[in-house]
Design a protein that fits this description.
Helices cover 30% and strands 17% of the residues. The chain has 21 helices and 27 strands. The strands form 7 sheets. An 8-stranded parallel β-barrel has the order 3-4-5-8-9-10-11-12, surrounded by 7 helices. Strands 15-14-13-16-27 form a 5-stranded parallel β-sheet. Strand 1 and strand 2 form a beta hairpin. The radius of gyration is 26 Å and the shape is globular. The two termini are 34 Å apart. The model has no long low-confidence stretch (mean pLDDT 96).
């Protein structure tokens, strides 16, 4: 039975959107995400299952990951493309599955241009990008015309495959974007020089696609509204392009933010929620076709308020549908507390895709694993004890209880969340609290018995059918002379406020924790805001400067910080593929001294004595914070096994990685799915 729209607190979000020849059931667009399943060799069963869950979860319209219109346009040598009727048949499973579930789906056509990772890439000019090792071939006039026809061919094949429309990827620095701006287009022919010539390529693509597919077919054009690069588009040019795209036959315009090569974060966790929606709002009065806003919108409250305030006609969310396939259904029911919120960590999605692995989600391991990670109701109900209420313990307890087991959760502290209670205090990671909120809701919903301030013992755990140790880790203290000095503290003691760092601080250990601690040390309390973000990263959100960039203005750090590591390699080398550069640059903004190849010799009243490249020196610091790894906490394991009890270990207690919540939650959910 269909729900009445009057029943939801998010009325704007669930108003249908009339496109004339078709109607979308709500204003939620599941934005394009490349999952890695597009390249599955046999068929697209996994991808179809992924989309099906999102349609059943209420997405108003789904956009696929980018599909190349020809070989030269592929992102990598074997990336997905649509160039023939044979390949068309491959995609029919997707459209049939989505339509049978009651949804609509459009295919994104993406030509990588100079961003492709293969030697056959092409571009308007022979300018190598900073994110590909290959220099592009200059497109001849004949090649340009052929490429336009390839877009048309892909669109007509998509229509024949049953897609409801296409999205033409004209942003993020891909080929179409490369034609539009002087940064990458140095041509002097009819495809370069003046702005009218530079936008000829996207306008012709849209015009010719519309002629080929007819009027009753969705064409979304994803337009780069703020490039965030030197020699990017001016706002006046963005408006001219948008109007030209509308006249050429687009059905909707979607918001693109920033080029991939821009050294400004646009979707990472430190980007404030909805930080770029003002850009869409600027364009709204300039065009008459529906407009979609995007980037860092992850709650129904924010999405609904953007629609109510006239920012856009539709809201695009990508990763939030990874985190919770049922996002839209839960929002419509007014059950926003039940939504598993995307925390924009990138660890299981973008970081994996960029190393040619299938995407998933840190807070929802079922994402992209719908065909193999299945939570079925249990046939035999068990009494299960879970020891430890960090991310692994919470995830296991929630899934096991959802399946029907009777679960008791023991936590020796006075709150749920474990290490996420530290993470949420790091500037830019405040949304980690949302994961704790979600799991807390699930525990209540599925009637998990929660016993806080209770240390589990062998006696207490007698009588349970299964015991899951999710006891986590403790900080590893390195062997350094003087480590007992009063100036020394662990990262736990520092962040929890048990000890207060001074004005000059040395951080020993430059993994993820070390970087987080350095970030925490160099921010003033309560400093975070959208305006501070714009100022630090040099974003002209008023759109008065070309490319939307201006001179960064960074507040002086409240502390002088030294970030140290033993290994003689670049600090942060093993941080996330898509976020590591942000963390390094953020600390550089705050003048953190990052030193590698450090040998720690002594801690005394003078400070930290070290040797770097054989040369002794003293860092005259007030405080030394230890971030030198972790040790598994599993003291109960041997006594439980000796007593003959069935015991399992998950998360940090299983393997004390660099606070790897992705592995911890994934392992816990997979165990909960089979017990």
């Amino acid at each position: 039975m269909q729900l009445r729209i009057d029943n939801t607190p998010f009325k704007a979000l669930f108003q249908p959107l009339d496109l004339g020849f078709t109607q979308l059931k709500n204003r939620l667009l599941m934005g394009s995400m490349h999952t890695g399943m597009e390249e599955d060799k046999q068929d697209l069963q996994r991808l179809a299952a992924f989309y099906r869950e999102r349609v059943l979860g209420g997405a108003g319209l789904i956009v696929t990951g980018g599909i190349a219109p020809d070989r030269a346009g592929r992102l990598a040598p074997f990336s997905a493309k649509l160039t023939s009727s044979k390949e068309q048949g491959r995609y029919e499973l997707l459209t049939q599955t989505v339509h049978e579930a009651g949804g609509k789906i459009v295919m994104q056509i993406l030509h990588a241009g100079r961003y492709g990772y293969h030697p056959f890439i092409v571009a308007p000019s022979a300018l190598k990008s900073p994110i590909s090792p290959f220099k592009p071939w200059v497109m001849s006039t004949r090649r340009i015309h052929k490429t336009i026809l390839h877009f048309v061919r892909a669109a007509t094949l998509a229509k024949a495959a049953g897609f409801d429309g296409i999205e033409i990827m004209g942003s993020e620095g891909y080929l179409i974007n490369q034609f539009i701006v002087l940064h990458t287009n140095h041509r002097q022919d009819e495809w370069g020089g003046t702005f009218a010539n530079r936008i000829r390529f996207p306008v012709e693509i849209v015009r010719q696609v519309r002629e080929a597919v007819g009027e009753q077919f969705i064409i979304i054009y994803r337009l780069s509204m703020i490039d965030l690069i030197e020699k990017g588009s001016s706002w006046e040019e963005v408006v001219i392009l948008a109007k030209s795209i509308e006249q050429a036959g687009a059905t909707l315009i979607n918001t693109g933010i920033g080029w991939h090569e821009a050294r400004i974060p646009t979707i990472a966790s430190m980007v404030p929620a909805g930080a770029f929606t003002q850009v869409t709002k600027h364009l709204k009065p300039e065009i008459s076709i529906p407009l979609i806003t995007s980037n860092r919108i992850n709650t129904p409250q924010l999405a609904n308020s953007l629609l109510e305030s006239g920012v856009a006609d539709m809201v695009s969310m990508a990763r939030p549908f990874l985190a919770d396939a049922q996002f839209a259904v839960k929002a419509r029911l007014g059950e926003e507390q039940a939504i598993n919120t995307c925390i924009a960590c990138n660890q299981a999605c973008l970081d994996r895709v960029f190393v040619n692995k299938t995407a998933s989600c840190l807070v929802n391991p079922r994402a992209c694993n719908e065909t193999e990670l299945i939570y079925q109701a249990v046939h035999q109900i068990k009494q299960i004890a879970v020891v430890g209420a960090g991310p692994a313990g919470l995830a296991f307890a929630a899934v096991a209880a959802e399946r029907g087991h009777r679960v008791s959760l023991f936590e020796k502290s006075d709150c749920l969340g474990g290490q996420f209670n530290l993470a949420k205090k790091i500037p830019g990671k405040e949304e980690y609290q949302q994961t704790i909120r979600y799991f807390t809701h699930q525990l209540e919903k599925f009637q998990v018995t929660v016993r806080l301030q209770t240390e589990a013992t062998l006696e207490l755990l007698q009588g349970f059918d299964e015991i899951v140790l999710a006891t986590g880790i403790m900080p590893r203290i390195p062997e350094i002379a003087g480590i007992e000095h009063a100036s020394v503290m662990s990262y736990v003691e520092a962040i929890q406020g048990q000890k207060i760092p001074g004005k000059r601080v040395a951080v020993i250990g430059a993994g993820g924790i070390g970087f987080d601690v350095a970030e925490w040390l160099t921010h003033f309390p309560g400093e975070e805001s959208s305006q501070k973000f714009y100022e630090e990263w040099g974003i002209d959100i008023k759109l008065e400067s070309r490319g939307g960039i201006t001179q960064p203005a960074i507040e002086q750090s409240p502390r002088q910080v030294f970030l140290l590591q033993r290994k003689k390699e670049k600090l942060g080398k093993h941080l996330g593929k898509t976020t590591g550069w942000i963390h390094r640059l953020s600390l550089k903004h705050r003048h953190v001294s990052m030193l590698s190849g450090v040998k720690y010799e002594l801690i005394d009243d003078k400070g930290l004595h070290v040797r770097i490249e054989g040369k002794p020196q003293v860092l005259e610091v007030d405080s030394i914070i230890i971030c030198a790894g972790q040790i598994e906490l599993r003291e109960l394991l041997t006594p439980l096994k000796t007593a003959g009890l069935s015991v399992h270990v998950v998360g940090g207690a299983f393997k004390a990685l660099e606070l790897d919540a992705r592995h911890a939650i994934d392992q816990a959910c997979r165990l909960a799915a089979i017990l």
